[in-house]
Amino acid sequence: MAAGPPGSRRLLPPLLLLLLGPALGPALGQGLGQTRFICTSVPLDGDVCAASALGTGSAEELKGTVLQLRETVLQQKETIMNQKETIRELTAKLGRCESQSVLEPGDGKGRKGFSKNTMGDLSRPAAAETLSQLGQTLQSLKTRLENLEQFSRMNSSSQTNNLKDILQNKIDDLEKQVLSRVNSLEEGKLSPRNESEERGKIESTLTSLHQRISDLEKGQKDNRPPDRFQLTFPLRTNYMYAKVKKSLPEMYAFSICMWIKSSASPGMGTPFSYAVPGQANELVLIEWGNNPMEILINDKVAKLPFAINDGKWHHICVTWTTRDGVWEAYQDGTQTGNGENLAPYHPIKPQGVLVLGQEQDTLGGGFDATQAFVGELAHFNVWDRKLSPGEVYGLATCSSKALAGNVIAWAEANIDIYGGATKWTFEACRQLN
């Protein structure tokens, strides 16, 4: 230790003791048997004895801290090793891709829809990823086939049923091929030649399957009535929506009715929004977060007593008149609530944008994913008058005498869809009848 003023001694800094510990240990520990050194930082004018006692009391805390630091270092070391292994794999794949692009500069013989080699000479992780993608493709085809089966039940014909059976058999064969490929990869049995042949068979079958299902879906659309369709919004995004081609006129009263199905939580989002220049919330139906469903007219709000977030089809209607702002709400043909003073004497303004599935913060845009509608929607109709309870009941029970909206009528020709929202044949009315 360094010499200090008479009658005092100064402790070495803790870091220096740690560094010199191996060298000083034998010298300082001679004759002491098993020893342990605890380093404590003490001010120049501090009490060394008091500091020593304090250091002894916190030894367990120091030990715990050291163990935590050691565990953290080991975890970081493991992470680094994993990242190095990933980098090596990616580098190897990149090298193979570069060498393949040099040796095979492209012969222009790619199959339609499969210009890339999706299942070529890949390492096991890449092959597993490709198989996962193929499984997702098969699942998508199965979903499309199930919708075609629903359509075939509505329009029974031997031709449709035969095509459905053929497609189902092809999907089953593809699943067997994928399973066989997984087993072969695990056992390392596939040679490059056999793998290329198998890849060709699978890609050819997928191409044919896509084409046949697309042809059937086209026939399904051509055969169904123009209003017997539904919109599906499967994800909460800020880009998936539908736009009504026609704007609303100036209205002093309205009735808006639709079929709706959702189990999204919290809140199903925004089934529709109508924005005009200078007012993004001219007319909006929204269920956001844990709040009840609300209707907004010129930023004025009324809470609607709907209970429809159960994953089942429900028919809802909202009627309103500018005189005293009187409104009524109907669920499944029955009035569930009413009120007044909702934007009284404020007519709905014309020349706006009507969007299904998103809430507009600006005219025709400014979508927020947290307010997006998740679910299915059909038969969105708008009238410029207040419907009677009997008319609402006729709509909810799918009466053949039910009228279409005189302002907005539900028809495929009146709707543009964006971002992956899809159209399917509407089934709720058929289930009721």
Automatic annotation (TrEMBL):
Residues 183-202 have a biased composition (Basic and acidic residues). Pfam families: Pentaxin. Its cofactor is Ca(2+). Residues 73-100, 131-177 form a coiled coil. The keyword Coiled coil applies. Residues 227-429 form the Pentraxin (PTX) domain. The keyword Signal applies. GO terms for molecular function: metal ion binding. InterPro entries: ConA-like_dom_sf (IPR013320), Neuronal_Pentraxin_Related (IPR051360), Pentaxin_CS (IPR030476), PTX_dom (IPR001759). Keywords: Calcium, Coiled coil, Disulfide bond, Glycoprotein, Metal-binding, Signal. Residues 101-121, 183-205 are annotated as: Disordered. CDD domains: PTX (cd00152). Residues 1-29 form the signal peptide. GO terms for biological process: axonogenesis involved in innervation. It comes from the Eukaryota. PANTHER family: NEURONAL PENTRAXIN-1, PENTRAXIN. This is Neuronal pentraxin 1.
